[in-house]
Structures are given as C-alpha cells and as structure tokens.
Amino acid sequence: MEKRKLSFWEIWNMSFGFLGIQFGFALQNANTSRIFETLGAEIDKIPILWIAAPVSGLIIQPVIGYFSDRTWTRLGRRRPYFLIGAILSSLALFVMPNSPTLWIAAGTLWIMDASINVSMEPFRAFVGDNLPDEQRALGFVMQSFFIGTGAVVGSILPYLFTNVFDVSNVAPKGIIPDAVKWSFYIGGIVFLLSVLWTVFKSTEYTPEELHAFEANSKKDTEDISNSETESGVSTKKQLLLGLLFAGIGALISFLIFENNLAKELYILFVGLIFMGVLFVIASQLRTKKVQNGFTIIMTDLLNMPKTMQKLAWVQFFSWFALFSMWIYTTQAVTQHIFGTTDTTSKIYNDAADWVSVLFTVYNGIAAAVAFLLPVIAKKVGVRATHLLALCAGGVGLISVYFIGDKQMLILPMLGVGIAWASILSMPYAMLSGALPAAKMGYYMGVFNFFVVIPQIVAATILGFVIKQFFHNEPIYALIIGGVSMIFAGLLTLRVNSKTKIEIHE
C-alpha cells in the first residue's frame, strides 16, 4: 500500500493556508518593532519585547505536534489545529494595532504568535502525511511559494494604504497610524479565509492508512521507533544532561547577578535551568516505569535522527540572522539611512514604510525563486543549493552598512529573498525522509526548537550587545546577522542528506 501522487492543484489546495499564515506573520515581523517604539519602547529594550514569539513556539509547537499525531476528528488529524489557530490569530491581528500601552501590545504579540504556531506546525507535518517521498520537496516548495506571496502582500500593505489609498501613516505620540491599523485588519480576514480554504479543500489519510503506509515502507528512518517507547537514550544519560543544563544555567545566572548585567540575560539561562529540571524529572519518572506524554516528549528530544541533529545547527544560525533582521531593520534604516529616531516625524514613518517595501522585495524574491530551487538542487545537490542561498543572504545583510541611498537597499534584499526561500524548503526536504510517520508532527515541532531557540538568544543578547559594544547603533545587528547566516551555510556541508530532488510536471 502506497500513497498516491497528488495533482498540482491538490498540493496547491493543501498549501494554500500558508498564504494567510505568512500574511499575518509578515505584518507582525515588519510592524511590531514600529508599534513597540511608537508606544514608548527604547531601542535596547525592543528585542526582549519580542521574546513572546520564540517562547510561544518553543512550548507550543512540539506539544501541538505530539497531540496532532494522536488526533482524529471529523475534520481529520491536522486540520482542527489549522482552524483553531486561524481563528485566534485573526482576532489578535485586530487587537494588536489598537493596543493602548506597550505591555498590552507585548501581551497581544504573545497571544498572536502562539496562535500562529498552533496553525503553522501541523502544516509542516501535513506535507509528510499526505505526499509520497518523491513529492515532498514539491510540497515544501509550494509552501515556500505561498509564504513568499503572503508575505509580499502583508509587508507592502502599510505602504499601499499610504501611497495609493491616501491613508495617513502618521499619528499623535503613542497612537498607531491608520495605515498600519487597516493593514492588520485586512491581514486578519485573509488569514482566516485562506486557512478555511485548506481545511475544506483538502483531505487526510486516516491513522490506519498511515500505519499501513509506514509498515510497508522500506525507507530508512535512522532506527527511530514509531511506537510509544522511549528507547535510544538511557535514564542515566538523561539525568546527567539535566543536571549539566541546570548547573550551567545556575552558574551563569549567578555571574549575571554578581556583575549586575542586563536582566534580559536571565531569560536564556533560567530557561536552561528549567529545561534541565524537566530532563531530571523525566529521567526519574522513567526509572519508576512511568510512561506518559511528558516522558515521551522529553525523551524523544534526545532521540533525534542524526540528520536532524546536524540540520539543527544550520537552522540555529540561519534563524538568529533572520531574527536580527526582523528586530532591527526598521531602526537600522531610520537611523543609518534616514538619520532620525523621532517616531512622530514624517521622515521616520516614511522610512518605516520603506522597510515594508524592502520586506516585500525579499518575500517577493522568495516566492519567485521557490520553484527554481529544486531545479538547482537537482543539478548541484540540496546541500550546495542551501549553502549558496545562505551566503547570498549573509552578504546582503552585511552590505546594508555600506549603502547610503534608500533605493539601493533593494539590492541586499535580493540575496535575503533567495536565502529565505531556501530556509523555508530545503531543510525540511532534507529532514522529512529521516522521520518516522507516527512521530512526524512531533519531530517537526521539535525541529522548530532550532528556529525559536536562536530567536530567544537574539532577543536576550542583541539589545545588550548593541548597547554595550556598538553605542546603540542597530545597523551592527544586521552585520552580526549576515555573518551568522554565512556560517550557517558552511555548516550545511556537515549534513549527510540522501534527499533526491525530482522535477515533476
């Protein structure tokens, strides 16, 4: 028994929801720092306000993945999560630009990003569930296309409202401009409708059918068990790792306290203590022969396939670079290129609107090159394709420092767009073949750790680094991001991927 090959339009329908997800995500990325700064946030405090996004993903995605692996309803396995996340995200998009205070905006960001994660994680597993091996690369590329397309429209909306529909992009101090508000309202509507399209236009295999496909599959899954067992890592090793993580976290937290360093640094290392404690608890429960969702989740973290372990480092440095860009591009452009920090001035808001255009460019390039990447990968390999793409993005971010004209800023975004398209597809294409079907959702969620952990690191240390070493000049955050992205490309060479890219009509 084998999965049938889906038609182009069936893959289109099952990926269409990503149009809305990324529409909302792009509005969040391009405008959140602007909203925070408008509501009074200082430059070095903005990264920590973004901490809601990665923390939400770190907690929610593996949990949603674990439960979606075990869900079956009238709507199917993954689709209930798409729908619930879309409803909550759409509501948050309406609330965010009307936040009266900075902390309400930060709290709304937390709710919005958590809801986006509820929708997003099952979409990755959806490809692994529904497509045969030879079509998975096409499935992830299709998702990349919709991510790019949704982000193009989402990013450009404030600029369009101001320059085409004559909606004001300035407002009194502490008030979000109408152009931003209307962009978020449109985003909420598009998010919900596009996810509804996938929910009602797609079907899913039943758990019994998926089990039959897995039983008949001869594909190497790197000896990862599909059962509810926890083999592969001893309780002793789990206990020692937990104690090590907790000890390192406690020691560095003490040093932060003794040296009166930035309080934001506590988040990273207290989080390390918390993770260590969870490992210790799981090891003790396993020693007592207790088996439940918690012990399985905490133990399978240490049972990751080797391909996934190596890709984790690639993802870490890639997403550290992206988060540096998302946090600091508005401030880098307004200060370094336009020479202003006055959020009530027309110059500042014109510059912020131009950042929306730049984000539109890189997302547009990502959508345009998405279907070109498999063609390149077929000729030079997946690893080399990802290496070249990440280097293009890294050079683009670094080059912003040397540019003094706003029009020329479009050129770096071309490289960033190529990198973005590859980040959204190539790692998942390399990973999906190394995962067992019964744990596809869970491991896709765990893989998201290496998307959100670098974001937590960035949100924790970037403000401190920029303030202490670069005199609060945010342009240097983009340089740091560029170096990180190039390093991620080099790490791709360590991945021993057996992924074969096939071009289908």
Task: Describe it.
- With 505 residues, this protein is mainly α.
- The protein is 73% helix and 0% strand.
- Helix 2 packs antiparallel against helix 8 (178-201), helix 2 crosses helix 13 and helix 5 packs antiparallel against helix 8 (178-201).
What would a concise description of this structure say?
By secondary structure, this protein is mainly α. It is 73% helix and 0% strand. The protein has 21 helices and no strands.
What keywords describe this structure?
505 residues, globular
Order of helical and strand elements: HHHHHHHHHHHHHHHHHHHHH
Class inferred from helices and paired strands: mainly alpha
* Number of extended strands: 0
Shape: globular
Instruction: Enumerate how many helices there are, as a single number.
Output: 21
Strand proportion: under 5%
Q: What is the end-to-end distance?
A: 24 Å
Write the layout of secondary structure elements.
Elements: H1 8-15, H2 17-38, H3 46-49, H4 52-69, H5 79-95, H6 102-130, H7 133-163, H8 178-201, H9 207-216, H10 235-258, H11 265-287, H12 293-300, H13 306-337, H14 346-369, H15 373-380, H16 382-399, H17 410-423, H18 426-432, H19 440-447, H20 449-469, H21 475-491
Helix pairs in contact: 1-8, 2-6, 2-7, 2-8, 2-13, 2-14, 4-6, 4-19, 4-20, 5-6, 5-8, 6-19, 7-8, 7-14, 7-18, 10-11, 11-12, 11-20, 13-14, 13-20, 13-21, 14-17, 15-16, 16-17, 16-21
